[in-house]
Amino acid sequence: MHRVAVEYEARRPDAWQQSRIESVGGQAYYDRFGKNQDGQGFYEDPALDELIAHAGFETADSVFEFGSGTGKFAARLLQDHLPPTASYRSVDLSPIMIGLARQRLEPYGARAKVALSEGEITFPLADHAVDRVVSNYVLDLFSDTAIQSFFLEAHRTLRPGGRVCIASLTRGVGLPSRLVSSLWMAVFRLKPALVGGCRPIKLDAFIDSHCWHIAYRNILAPFGVPSEVWILEAIQVAPSARE
Ligand SMILES: C[S@@+](CC[C@H](N)C(=O)[O-])C[C@H]1O[C@@H](n2cnc3c(N)ncnc32)[C@H](O)[C@@H]1O
Asked: Where are the domains of the chain?
């Protein structure tokens, strides 16, 4: 079996438990936060604009979003970027978020399906089922092990050439954004709940170059809050590499 698949099997149960335990910004937090999530647009929207500009949603056929929140990003995709025949599916662990997303996505009928999860980092999809996996401002809540599981699941469920599209908090690059991310990290260490359990992360170490081709990456820091955008193309792992 390919190394990645072996690691995946070894880590999956652990990742699930860890994400449930360590995700301070988990269900109870996001149930309370609810609609306020859309107020984070002042720093999230420029990164999401950039993600949309480079993800090629216009040629996508099926999209899966992990941690869809209020469904704001999904509505934008379905309204303005996806072909009319493309489908959208997502999971989120907060029942309140699921309710808000279902309400928002009602006009898109059967094209958009949003499901409640228990926080497991396994996608309810068959192998090679979708051509885009999206996750915005979710991985920055996770433990390292859970992030690894996310990438393994994204690779399992994407068709070869399909893309995983990620926006997350990251470390600063210039002086103002370095100060903001250091301050954020200090607050996170002191009391993670004060920053919703999320913190600036670096994803480089999680991206296996045998599995992913970096199609695009960039760091933006509107109002000094640094976000990183990644678009990675799934490389088909040669059958010989699996043995
Ligand atoms: C910061 S919000 C981001 C929401 C949305 N992606 C956005 O950009 O507005 C994080 C979301 O991830 C969800 N979440 C956190 N841990 C999760 C998990 N293990 N599985 C599924 N959803 C999760 C939360 O319920 C919340 O809706």
From this structure: 3-242
